[in-house]
Amino acid sequence: MLERYHALLRAQAPHERLAQAMALSTMTRELALAGIRARFPNADAHELDVRLAVRLYGRDAACKVYGEVPDDAR
Asked: DSSP of 6-67, one letter per residue?
């Protein structure tokens, strides 16, 4: 099955592969944000951004960008 998937990818034009990768990246980000919203329904937009940054890029990167990061952010 993996061989078939790779064959389908090779058959796509580069711009099609890029569009597919961008769509998957957007979907991953939206799913991560939905999970954070479910766990922290009272979080404001800033807290959601910070928690998403921790989830996607790690605590160190989030601290460099946002400064303080909640202890329970993961």
From this structure: HHHHHHS-HHHHHHHHHHHHHHHHHHHHHHHHHH-TT--HHHHHHHHHHHHH-HHHHHHHHS
